[in-house]
Amino acid sequence: MIEQAGIPVQSFENVKTFLNAYRADFSGCIIIDVKISGMDDLLQEEVTMV
């Protein structure tokens, strides 16, 4: 639906693939499926870092 509105979309199979592609200068909207493969690992890393 977003692509049909003419907005560029990029999908990622899992959290690690997303993080490898992420750039600090990214400008846009990030929509994340909380059930994406690897999300538990990402959340665990965040908790560990705090």
What are the segments in which pLDDT stays under 50 over at least 5 consecutive residues? none
Mean pLDDT: 76
Instruction: State the total count of DSSP E strands.
Output: 0
Helix content: 25-40%
How is the biggest beta sheet arranged?
none
Instruction: Identify the overall geometry.
Output: globular
Instruction: Quickly give the structural class.
Output: mainly alpha
Terminal CA distance: 37 Å
Question: N-to-C SSE series?
Answer: HH
Q: What would you say this structure looks like, in words?
A:
The protein has 50 residues and is mainly α. Helix content is 36%, strand content 0%. It is globular and about 35 Å long. The protein starts with 14 loop residues before the first helix and ends with a helix. The model has no long low-confidence stretch (mean pLDDT 76).
What labels describe this entry?
single chain; 50 residues; mainly alpha; 2 helices; 36% helix; globular
Please render the helix and strand layout as text.
Layout: H1 15-21, H2 39-49
Describe what is shown at a glance.
The protein is 36% helix and 0% strand. The protein has helices spanning 15-21, 39-49. The longest helix is centred in the C-terminal third of the chain and has 11 residues, at 39-49.
